[in-house]
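Re-run with default settings, no changes from the original entry. Doing this only to confirm the output is reproducible before filing.
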Amino acid sequence: MAFRSQPPQEANFSMQSSASIEPGSAIEYSADALVVRAFVQEVHTAAMLAVGATSAINLTQTIGSAVPLIATRNLVHGFKGSIDHWPQRILEEQLTKDTVKHVTDFFAAFRRGDARLLDFEVDAQEIGSERAAPLHILNLASIWRTAATQALAVTQELRRDAQDVLPPEYAAAADLLKDVLARVINGSTEFCQTDGTFVLPQLSERRRMQRQSLLQAVKAVSEGHVFHAFAKDISSGGMGLTRMPRLDKGSKISVELKSGRTFAGTVAWSRNGEIGVTFDTPLSLTDPLIFG
């Protein structure tokens, strides 16, 4: 499913997602391997955002509408790619020097693309988005296709370098990225709709990745009943709640955080006072609740 109405600062975003995963055992990894895994996840996130951005720019070139361009800035501006905050010793030991350099180059290209989208946004405020789009589209297309090309190469390099310390789903994610990046480089518009809604594939590593802790009281509403529950954790696809009665699988539910932010979803499972919620619309890859 996809957002149809949201605050202007958020990108319309949808992902093909599986239901919330019930708690299970985790595989043990060394500290260095966990760092590499997180680093690869960050690069994969940037690569998938590049898929969305390039697809949207392709769509603007195809239909002549500025709507996809406006949505593109909203999609990518929350990602601040850099290797500066990563432990350099671990990167140098686990990855080749060329791979680290190519990741740096890709992140720099990503930031250039974001900066050029900001230039478009500034001009759009002055002369209107439909007049500003033709002034920027060729430059944007060149920059983002370059970024997508770099993303394609570097995701495969990471797969090669880190194959001994990554779980199998990372190889599947690299295969997926290779496919979708090649498509947008060749002009595909399939990952952005004309209303600015992005429909991006779900990376297999994200379906299995550890959820982010929430640890806060929430208000849950289902079938007209209000429950004062406790949110344990959250991922792009769903949320785990405790202090809840048993609810039927498939029941509609909304959850309101202390901040007032509300999530709509469906009960994926319910047992022993805990439930798993699958969001109707998965969170953006750069949502601050799950990324950063």
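Confidence is low (pLDDT under 50) at residues 1-28. The chain is about 45% helix and 20% strand.
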